[in-house]
Amino acid sequence: MMVNKLKSVLRKLFSFSIYGNITAYEYCYIIYLRLFYRFKGLKFDVHLTEHCNLNCKSCSHFSSIAPKEFADVSVFEKDMKRISELFPKKLYKICLLGGEPLLHPQVLDFINIAYKYAPKTERQLITNGVLLLKQDDEFWRICRETNTIINITNYPVNVKYEEIENKCKSENVQLLLEPVIKEFKKYDYDFNGSQNIRKNYKYCSDAINCSQLNNGKLCLCQQVAYIHHFNNYFDLNLQVSDNDYIDIHHAKSRKDVLKYMRNPIPFCKYCSLKTRGIVQGWGISKKELNEWKTD
Prior knowledge:
Elements: H1 2-13, E1 17-19, E2 22-23, H2 24-40, E3 42-47, H3 73-86, E4 91-97, H4 107-117, E5 122-127, H5 137-145, E6 149-152, H6 161-171, E7 175-177, E8 183-186, H7 197-202, H8 206-209, E9 212-214, E10 217-219, H9 222-234, E11 245-247, H10 254-261, E12 278-281
Parallel strand pairs: 3-4, 4-5, 5-6, 6-7
Antiparallel strand pairs: 1-2, 8-12, 9-10, 10-11
Helix pairs in contact: 3-4
């Protein structure tokens, strides 16, 4: 409680903008994240599905406009094996998400593989919770035996959170229930690619906290990993080059990966970071371009 109060006070004290809509408080948090992950090690997300059973406006992973698509278990195992070779000790957290991961018929295989190659690493299954109470006994047993944390992104939808909490307690499975998300920050893109790459990287929390492992490619953020959905749906061409990700199977060492992670990438030129962060109420997507683009 005291920590939350302190955060609230600091947020008010450092609420002034220093780069577009980025506040001093947010920049301090970015500095903290950079130091934290340098000490703790690599953290990354993996999409089990591209699509979702919700339809959130302005989804930063583009799940509301993505086709129905499932991750390949054999590819994930190959990638996890390589990650475990590159990061035998400094692997901090793995998040299995989407889309909605519980839509994947082989979700338990992904949980087991993550545990197989990173048993000492924190592993989370991030879900909207809609399908949780429909999971069978095997699901709960595997989550319990692999020490997989269930992290619910708490949207203002009809989910029986109290029943889920009781179920997790009875199954001895750790649960993280995030605060209710009533607002979304709107992402914004510069289709001309004229933004300052270095400044964007410097002031972007996604570049620190949202790395994605996608079919052998470690991407700095979700935009690089999934922008093809945005391009395909709206017939655009925000280009991802070979310099925007690192192929973990071609990386010679952990240093190669970290060098990539700690520097700006060409794709940063498309992010209008100065106008990103406009708060809008959470809502259902109409799949319109203005959900991701400020006029």
